[in-house]
Amino acid sequence: xxxxxxxxxxxxxxxxxxxxxxxxxxxxxxxxxxxxxxxxxxxxxxxxxxxxxxxxxxxxxxxxxxxxxxxxxxxxxxxxxxxxxxxxxxxxxxxxxxxxxxxxxxxxxxxxxxxxxxxxxxxxxxxxxxxxxxxxxxxxxxxxxxxxxxxxxxxxxxxxxxxxxxxxxxxxxxxxxxxxxxxxxxxxxxxxxxxxxxxxxxxxxxxxxxxxxxxxxxxxxxxxxxxxxxxxxxxxxxxxxxxxxxxxxxxxxxxxxxxxxxxxxxxxxxxxxxxxxxxxxxxxxxxxxxxxxxxxxxxxxxxxxxxxxxxxxxxxxxxxxxxxxxxxxxxxxxxxxxxxxxxxxxxxxxxxxxxx
Length: 356
What we know:
Radius of gyration: 20 Å
Number of helices: 11
Mean pLDDT: 96
Distance between the termini: 16 Å
């Protein structure tokens, strides 16, 4: 029997035991978690029903794992390896992956499997398909408590900035300073943004963005609409790129209102409720403003995980400031998710270390 923390149904979570686990195929691996992290996506899934009803599904898609079994065709990983498990674990032979859209391998958002289409990592062990493509080695000198941020937070923040096609000297706004937004800010800085406007209403997050990740301006959206503040500061020019890592159904439309003609809005925010996102007609220049809106889930994969891990190893990126809550013990997973749900003001990201 496998014990884990599960979504029982929409609106209900709890600890359960079950004997169901996907068999380890020839290309796959079975891991046990060493460090896990709770994510806002788990909340959207559980409490908003964003991806539909799920029954007795183990939650969690961010883990540092120890390999306990590998298929006979796995080449680069062995039992005992400590690995980064990408939050997206695509089928790399799928047509969509060959087209460059691995997030959607074999179906819409189907590259995201853990705690979506199969049991996640909040369990005593979990299955990873295509192990050589979806696990990643951890460089020497990178702590496991740092590496856990690669699974989703770093990868998604980087994906947001990369999709925006930031070039040196661009002005960039980052909407939402949760851990993904902070990593998007860091990515924009690494890519050469000249000015970075960070939008939130929690001051200490903005302080972290300025101190560690290159932010130059803090926009508190509780004081006035962020798009109006940005337009005022930029003398009605706007910004070249807007990275959306948080917000509501109107946020993308508001982003368009402070975007230059020819600019890009890049969204990685997960909209777990509502029927429609709204775009103002005038803010989008009546549809003819050459304002591009992109939205996409990070692509996953070993290549990206190990590439970003090198940023940690070389100290080009420090993820320690975004880990605000460190818990110990398998049974603390429930508390970590509750922290994400309650959102205390000193929260960015909780992690749970597990000893077996």
